[in-house]
Amino acid sequence: MQPKTNCQAEPLAPLALVERAWVEALAQVERAWADWAIVELRGAGQTNDQVAEALKRRGYSITVDAIRGRLKKMGQKK
């Protein structure tokens, strides 16, 4: 019996599943952070435009319409 070579190795499906789960988890963390920041900034009296600009300065790209949608989804007022 010969040992397996790299071309005969088992597929890396479990590793791909772990990688996909990791990427999805990071995306959820990013969305949660953005939601928290939106609520905090709006609670501090910032307008949606100011919130969008503050998030852009922190490297997060979001539109005013997306902020309105997130606030609506979270049950917050516009």
UniProtKB/TrEMBL annotation:
Name the record gives this protein: Uncharacterized protein
